């Protein structure tokens, strides 16, 4: 099993995932997540009903869901609805379930923190320091990391001032493969 087709465990239940190398993000099986959070005997039916409800509410979530081939319980690769992390978190908000409640509380907390950071950007800096410390990084390493981010930002700001456009020119200056060439 590769990173691209790994199965993740959540509360000892399998969640099929797919790693998209091009966009560098994970996609999760919607049916697997719904089954875990709702303990529904028919998670496909639950998802079908939820799609209708979301559409009636004006949500565009379903339009962002993609079909990906993932290994089914019979061992065959089958198309299944899949959501990236952002879509998955939005989906969880729509599921009335005690198991979904911790995620909803966490989302509310993170949303509140982001609003705080908008009002006072220094809070974001303090949270970054706290997170790095919790991960075991030294204060010296953290200070060097934050300084390198600051220097990098100054450099890219200077490129922008001098007319370097994101895409081919930016990639050349950055010594990285171009993204969105021609845009």
Secondary-structure topology with pairs:
Layout: E1 7-10, E2 13-20, E3 25-29, H1 30-38, H2 43-56, H3 61-64, E4 66-71, E5 77-84, H4 85-93, H5 101-119, H6 122-134, H7 139-161, H8 168-174
Antiparallel strand pairs: 1-2, 2-3, 3-5, 4-5
Helix pairs in contact: 1-2
Q: Overall 3D geometry?
A: extended
Give the oligomeric state: single chain
Rounded radius of gyration (Å): 21 Å
Main sheet record: 5 strands, antiparallel
> Strands across the major sheet, in which order?
1-2-3-5-4
Portion of residues within helices: 40-55%
What's the average pLDDT?
83
Question: How would you describe this structure to a colleague?
Answer:
With 183 residues, the chain is an alpha+beta fold. It contains eight helices and five strands; from the N terminus they run E-E-E-H-H-H-E-E-H-H-H-H-H.
Could you give a quick summary of the protein structure above?
The protein is α+β, with helices and mostly antiparallel strands.
Q: What keywords describe this structure?
A:
183 residues, five-stranded antiparallel β-sheet, alpha+beta, disordered N terminus
């Amino acid at each position: 099993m590769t990173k691209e087709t790994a199965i993740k465990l959540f509360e000892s239940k399998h969640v099929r995932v797919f790693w998209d190398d091009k966009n560098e993000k994970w996609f999760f099986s919607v049916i697997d997540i719904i089954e875990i959070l709702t303990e529904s005997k028919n998670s496909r039916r639950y998802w079908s009903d939820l799609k209708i409800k979301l559409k009636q509410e004006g949500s565009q979530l379903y339009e962002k869901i993609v079909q990906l081939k993932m290994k089914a319980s019979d061992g065959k690769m089958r198309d299944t609805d899949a959501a990236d992390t952002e879509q998955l978190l939005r989906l969880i908000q729509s599921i009335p379930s005690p198991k979904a409640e911790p995620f909803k509380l966490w989302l509310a907390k993170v949303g509140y923190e982001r609003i705080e950071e908008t009002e006072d950007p220094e809070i974001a800096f303090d949270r970054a320091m706290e997170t790095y410390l919790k991960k075991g990084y030294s204060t010296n390493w953290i200070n060097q990391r934050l300084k390198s981010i600051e220097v990098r930002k100054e450099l890219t700001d200077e490129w922008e001032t001098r007319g370097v456009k994101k895409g081919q020119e930016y990639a050349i200056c950055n010594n990285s493969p171009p993204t969105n060439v021609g845009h």
